[in-house]
Amino acid sequence: MGDTVRYERDGHVATITYDRPDALNAINAQMRRDLNAAWERFRDDEDAWVAIVTGAGRAFCAGADLHDGAGAAGAWPGSFWEIPTINSFESGLELWKPTIAAVDGYCLGYGLTAVTACDFVLASERAEFGFPEVKLGVPTIVGAIRLPGRVPMQHALELLLTGDRIGASRGKEIGLVLDVVPAAELMPAARRLADRLVRAAPLAVRATKEMAYRGRTLPWLDAVRLGETMRRVAGATEDAREGMSAAREGREPQWRAR
Questions:
Q1: Other beta carbons less than 10 A from residue 21's beta carbon
Q2: What mean pLDDT, rounded, does the chain reach?
Q3: How many angstroms separate the CA atoms of 13 and 66, rounded?
Q4: Are 85 and 210 members of one domain?
């Protein structure tokens, strides 16, 4: 993945690690490229069913690297008018495999945007969340799109419009964080959750996740029709047959993601 991001897989669980600890994992142009490559690798890795994203050192991610113009601008290629609609995990890369954010220390700006793109958020007791952009004179855009879907609007706007930070316990109180654990327990807790997720049929999980997200923006009848189509497609897979056979035989299923 390059020098700024690590991609490691253990069984069916991939771990993506922001790895610029001396810079509090702030995103510069190289890290933007490495992050995009890591998430695309996870998307395309048939043996990776769940991802944990975390940060090395004292921070999850302190946001954009203000000493790197490309990092501060999001490392988008070309001029403003050449910016693609979606080119990163944060901006909406379609990824229906489950994702877990394991947050320790600072989680600011782009870091928090990535967290709002994850399905589950676990935080250490020393985690801090914030969107500081308005205090720098620039708006938060993708974070402003995502955050109101994760927490009630007033709590979202408090973070977005003040630029202030909140701690892990407040994050859990407003619904941003699933659970708060001691720092030493953060990665073990994330792995336990990942292990629970990989016990389920991976293709069924992906179809269910996709419906959970798409169904929120579709008219009811359209959502049901799409869901029933996906049910039939998933029902024709090897995993669906294996699941039924395992249930009849009273054994654990052996999923193959096929």
A1: 14
A2: 92
A3: 33
A4: no
